[in-house]
From TrEMBL:
Identification of the protein by name: 5'-nucleotidase
Signal peptide region: none
Organism of origin: Salvia splendens (Scarlet sage)
Pfam family, one: 5_nucleotid
Binding site for Mg(2+): 118, 427
Domain of life the protein comes from: Eukaryota
Cofactor note: Binds 1 Mg(2+) ion per subunit.
């Protein structure tokens, strides 16, 4: 680049070295001396003060966090086979970060009189590598044999690590999206092909009216059970694009067929029959569940179970979770697990269950025979033929088992006076948490199994993330310098041709700063997941999934049994919220 004689220009941009992307941008001419920092010493001083303050805050925070985490790790019980329940003599210790319960809204457990649980993916944590693969294989077979899809699908395999919760499927376009809390699309794939920034903007960012990204045009992947169907949908999109004519249906129809195939697997019992034959293959054992339930009941609280599964399957799963651990006894079904609950409601048809105006009948279930008996709002009704009512010989009469009904029936059975007295624990952000929170005002706890590994990785990468934060501060400062220099050159009025060259070079420098920062950030996110990054983040913003968790879950944690590590009378308090104008001033 040529510079006119008689004029000098000196400019040096030093980018903060990212964890794996050192970036130094130099632009210098010995014949011109024009330094933005010399022209604006006050700006330089302000930035330096802010930077030093940030460094100091980060150092203090890191020092304090290191001591706390070391204490936690030294004192936490990491032996899952022998859980250290809070009520035990060894309880009450500091809790490892991966086992902690996190609080969005203050919750005083002294005000809770009943604690309820979902079963599937809450008490019963299914193994992704076996259960989701089973669901995938069953769905593929239904597509081929029942819905007429090409036989090539039978040779496909399932990568259970590829998809994550919080994604959105664009049924019309065959795209899979990850959005931030403002519903801006940050990561997008068409099948398994990543969309460029230009494609994302053209498709989702250039409309006059913002898209809501809701049903029926979109499908929300908010449960672990949905991951297999999302992966299969991506495979079908690629197959359709690469094999013209083999699948005549459009993308929307393909997704509808996938959902129909999943429903067929549920209706004919394909999945549950396999789980019932060998629960240990498909469900994780958790020896903390029984101590947790026992501690809650000993504290004077009622416990209940509300599940969409029917009684026969519920009994098998709960026997596995709460029954004897010996190999000889685990195959024998009994009803001992009912002693840990006051009320069990099966076939609840959530989320409709949470609407009091839902007129679904409530039937009592005879556990031994599975027979449904008529009730009047939970009170047994006289039988015309008394011989039809089977005697409940071996059951603990303190627990009642029902099917159907609605939340009004449950409140009456438990003598609930205020909905805020109920804490409900589930895994489904819509089916369990949103409805019970918005419609009823129940207190809620969301189980996020992926959270345990995520927070542990966050701790491992804490220095990297602090460096990225400083990188972002310095990038902002560098861009301000470049913008001011460009402004000066544009209105200098001398050697306009040479100025245009300088402006072009500054544009390249600014773009280089942006790309270096984005690449460092991308590398950090890929350590959480190669494709979708961190579950709770999209760039520097909370992800759509994290936003839903924050809005509707009073508490959230990785495993339901983490409740056993805390006092049943604990007062959960959230961390302080910060607005952007407060963060650098008052955050630790």
């Amino acid at each position: 680049m040529r510079i006119a004689r008689g004029r000098s220009f000196s400019f040096c941009v030093s980018l903060f070295s990212a964890p794996s992307s050192p970036g130094i941008l130099h632009f210098h001419s010995p014949t011109f001396s024009s330094s933005i920092s010399d022209r604006f010493p006050s700006k330089r001083k302000v930035f330096r003060s802010r930077e030093e303050s940030s460094d100091n805050q980060l150092y203090k925070s890191n020092t304090m966090d290191s001591k706390i985490m070391q204490f936690e790790r030294n004192n936490s019980n990491v032996d899952d086979k022998h859980p250290c329940v809070w009520s035990s003599p060894e309880g009450g210790q500091m809790i490892d970060i991966g086992k902690q319960i996190f609080c969005n809204r203050s919750l005083n457990m002294r005000n809770i009189v009943a604690v309820g649980f979902d079963m599937d993916y809450t008490l019963a944590q299914y193994k992704s590598e076996t259960f989701e693969s089973l669901a995938y294989e069953g769905t593929v077979k239904k597509l081929v044999h029942d819905l007429g899809y090409p036989a090539e699908l039978l040779g496909w395999s399932f990568d259970w690590t590829y998809m994550v919760r919080g994604l959105v499927l664009d049924k019309k376009r065959g795209n899979i999206l990850k959005m931030d809390r403002h519903k801006y699309v940050k990561v997008a794939y068409h099948g398994f092909r990543e969309l460029s920034k230009e494609e994302k903007v053209a498709t989702y960012g250039s409309t006059l009216i913002r898209d809501a990204f809701d049903e029926p045009e979109y499908a929300l992947i908010d449960t672990l059970f949905s991951l297999a169907e999302a992966y299969l949908f991506a495979q079908l999109v690629d197959f359709k694009d690469n094999n013209l004519g083999k699948i005549p249906a459009d993308y929307s129809r393909m997704y509808k067929d996938v959902r129909a195939a999943v429903d067929l697997c549920h209706r004919d019992g394909t999945l549950k029959k396999m789980v019932a034959k060998d629960p240990q293959r498909y469900i994780n054992e958790d020896s903390s569940i029984v101590p947790m339930l026992r501690m809650l009941r000993d504290s004077g609280r009622a416990t209940f179970l509300v599940t969409n599964s029917l009684w026969d399957y519920t009994n098998i799963v709960m026997n596995f979770l709460c029954g004897p651990r010996s190999a000889e006894d685990c195959s024998v079904l009994n009803f001992d697990w009912l002693q840990y609950f006051d009320v069990v409601i099966t076939g609840s048809a959530k989320p409709g269950f949470f609407h009091d105006e839902n007129r679904a009948s409530l039937f009592e279930v005879d556990p031994e025979s599975g027979m449904l008996l008529n009730t009047d709002n939970g009170t047994p009704m006289p039988q015309v033929d008394s011989s039809l009512r089977l005697p409940l010989k071996i059951l603990d009469k303190s627990c009642q088992v029902f099917q159907g009904g609605n939340v009004g029936h449950l409140h009456k059975l438990l003598s609930i006076e205020s909905s805020s007295q109920v804490l409900y624990v589930g895994d489904h952000i819509y089916g369990d948490i949103l409805r019970s929170k918005k419609v009823l005002g129940w207190r809620t706890m969301l189980v996020v199994p992926e959270l345990e590994k995520e927070v542990e990785l966050l701790w491992t990468l804490r220095e990297t993330r602090k460096e990225l934060q400083l990188f972002r501060y310095k990038r902002d400062h560098i861009e301000d310098q470049i913008h001011h220099l460009k402004w000066s050159l544009r209105f200098d009025g001398k050697n306009s041709v040479n100025n245009e060259e300088l402006l072009s070079e500054l544009d390249k420098l600014e773009e280089g700063a942006r790309l270096s920062h984005q690449e460092a950030q991308r590398e950090c996110h890929q350590k959480f997941h190669k494709v979708w990054g961190q579950l709770m983040k999209t760039g520097y913003q909370n992800s759509r999934f994290a936003h839903q968790v924050e809005r509707f879950a009073c508490l959230y944690t990785g495993q339901v049994s983490n409740l056993s590590l805390y006092s049943p009378d604990k007062y959960y308090r959230p961390s302080e919220d910060f607005m952007p104008h407060e963060f650098d001033i008052v955050s630790l």
